[in-house]
Fold:
Amino acid sequence: MTSDRSEQQPQLKMQILHSSEHPVRDDLLSPNALKVLHRLNQSGFEAYLVGGCIRDIFLGKIPKDFDVATSATPEQIKGLFRNCRIIGRRFKLAHIMFGREIIEVATFRGPHQSSPENSGTAKQDGHGQLTRDNVYGTLEQDAARRDFTFNAMYYSTADKTIRDFAYGVEAIEDKVIEIIGDPETRFREDPVRMLRAVRFAAKLDMEIEEPCAEQIKKLGYLLENIPPARLFEEVLKLLFSGQGYATYQQLIEYGLFERLFPQTAPLVQIPDSRENRFIEQVIKNTDNRINNGQRVTPAFLYAALLWYPIEEFSQKLIFESNLSPLDAFNIATSEVLQRQLERVMIPKRFSITMREIWSFQNRLSKRYGRRAYQMLAHPKFRAAYDFLLLRGEIEGGELYELADWWTEFQEVDGDKRKTMLEELRKSAGASKNPRRRRKPRNKKSNSKPSQNP
Structure:
């Protein structure tokens, strides 16, 4: 892979759409984004809304993320906005904060030229991946550096026009995802673009053009070079967008799921396997909750994605090392989680919850006496129960009966709970740890107690 290929920018032809030719209106846009555009324009800089917000309006969707592209450098932007912070090293961006809303502002990118002279601003590794990319340029050059054709549309609030550099409007009408430039070069520059392609395909109900599709299947291994922390953010976008199930299917189809979850991938190759059906159901449930405005946590989905690798490794340890089930499970949990962290980072606030959900799967079967009440009062009981319920629906048998018992135990009153526990004790023959009967006390006598110890 030579650098000459990556330095050749595609030749684009700009089309200008006037206000009567496009659906973008200022009242559809974030007032804070408009403030940013106005101040940059008034300070003598070019500034445009670009990317997803424009694309979504063309698709009839409500825009959410408002990104700005400008001729101002990050330092100049910071000088204009007191509520601005500069982030990133590989790719410098300015974040302008208005309470909980963040307007992301990027300086126009220029042609990437990796050489010893400009190593401080531009750098590529041996795979063609851009490890530093702070080369600034013009609007036209920035458009050539965009990833997909429908993301190279720029809206100017000054004259209400849209500059379409890569026939983005036609791509939206044709429902096709096209990359700007040579697919292999662009995916090598940033392998995360492959994940973005499948995410857009699922989210926008579009088809990935054949040259792109071929390269995604060929170059998926390059995702192994992406830092685990960045992949965590990308997985959130993939599976927590409300179209997680469609995205999961795309990841499987293009061979990218195995790059993100290498321990799970071999277990879901058979569509009707319990492992695949379980993960699909968890993702579908997550989609339903997101689309109904309910709260979700990545911990639950990550716990589902890694459950069967833990179970399989645990059984292997019991068979090969003659460990107790509990010791084997604890070792398997730590080992599987550690291997996953090498690929996709999972913050500790989520991994702690995941461990509790996993641990509860064994504990929920030990429900005699006070244990049932103690587990019911635990803060993570509900998540662990939901996890057990889904497992029971997929696997059936004793697991289904156990989940059904806990469902009833939560719904009945205190007296009925006592009856359920008593029936459970009788059906088991005796409590696992029966209490020893106390000897009856002797009747009190009138004699004085002994003084001897």
